[in-house]
């Protein structure tokens, strides 16, 4: 064979191999979990849902099983759709550490430089940040924060008395202001208070960037990160958000440091604690600066739970009536419910658990990543795989729950987890309820504090108000659209309207007095208020 023929043959072989390798991009290896058919180069990019992905994932689980995979070019995404698969892959002794990482995130890296506890990679930096967060989330700290939770819930009730049509905005203000109090020691008494307005604006953009399908799959196809900003509108959003957040949190950190210099110590908010214990917790100033976003970005979780509760209560008046009967018997009409009442309010507890089950705010949680290869059910989950737990599918599973699409708090009185009687005892459900707040070693560290706030507001809301369907011009009920969701990272209902009415003039009077009695608690969080915020408070406290 001549040298020219050999060269031609070699070139053809190299070309054929290159084409073969190129065609393997997007293809699912035979040892991966099954999934929808792939396309060369693209994998499942075209099928990947952009909004409310949990619905499509739940449908695919019916076809491909409780664990399935999606291919995004060379990357792999694995979706876990049953309580057992989540338990085995993310929480079992052998796998918990191997699936506790977070995926490489271009968005998170630009915004937080690896220092946000929610999105940080699993390692030493994450442990220091998590320890700092736990300083404000431990039982002692939660007890110090209870008065402001009670005070903010009292204002929410009073806002609903004064201006019931804007219930959606009032719930948003409550969750935003309470989160600001807990994290930075300042509050937002109005929905359009400057602190709240900027935070809500930033959170809306953050939701767009982080939701499934919100941006091109830059983390699975890194070359997309090099597209110039003028051709990538999502980059303009991202860089603008990074700049606004840096300015926002830098000012809040300076405020906390100024309070320390003035001798205003002993505060229970997270920034104050982090500043006071900076050396002990081994935190750089950059790390402290990024603690704020870690919790304030989650403000919508408590608010989302309450928005979901509102719409579920409106659609199920019989649940309201039964809850109010229990509250009247235990609490009476002369005071608002307090946390200590919850031990004697089993139906209220069941109502809250059913809200979490029926409408989980984080239907897919925050994605995990496999730091090493994991084997499950004979399938290989390769190192670097993005892992999602489909909480929606688990909480709506007909294998676990009778009539799962019905809002039925009584199921929680029949069995401790609200599940069917007589389930296979080999199914490990020990972490089932916790799935509301994530899975494995990356569960939300603020879940107990958040639940404390939800308990207060739900019990007080049902104690003080009837949440009724609006009427059309013919006097017929307008049914709320239960599947009108905001396009966001969390599972939030789109803004909607209902008829919120105090149950009696006496209930309204008790609520007003509770709000006025909360003034001394609020004052410590109102030192930096200015302008219209101060004027508004003066008017409503007359």
Question: Would you write up a description of this structure?
Answer:
With 542 residues, this protein is mainly alpha-helical. It has helices at residues 3-24, 53-64, 83-91, 106-112, 124-135, 139-162, 167-184, 194-210, 233-261, 270-276, 285-296, 299-315, 317-330, 346-358, 391-395, 411-414, 447-464, 505-517, 519-523, 531-540; strands at 67-72, 75-80, 368-369, 374-376, 379-381, 386-389, 465-468, 499-502. It has a 4-stranded mixed sheet with strand order 1-2-6-3. A two-stranded antiparallel ribbon has the order 4-5. A hairpin with a 2-residue loop joins strand 1 (67-72) and strand 2. Helix 12 packs parallel to helix 17 (447-464). The longest helix has 29 residues, at 233-261.
Keywords:
globular, 4-stranded mixed β-sheet, Cytochrome p450, 20 helices, 542 residues, 6% strand, two-stranded antiparallel sheet
Describe the structure concisely for a colleague.
The chain is mainly alpha-helical and 542 residues long.
Strand order of the largest sheet: 1-2-6-3
Helix content: 40-55%
Number of strands: 8
Tell me the overall shape: globular
- Major sheet characteristics: 4 strands, mixed
- Report the structural category: mainly alpha
Strand content: 5-15%
Order of helical and strand elements: HHEEHHHHHHHHHHHHEEEEHHHEEHHH
As for the CATH topology, it is: Cytochrome p450
Low-confidence stretches: 8-23
Could you give me the name of the CATH homologous superfamily? Cytochrome P450
Q: Averaging pLDDT over every residue, what do you get?
A: 87
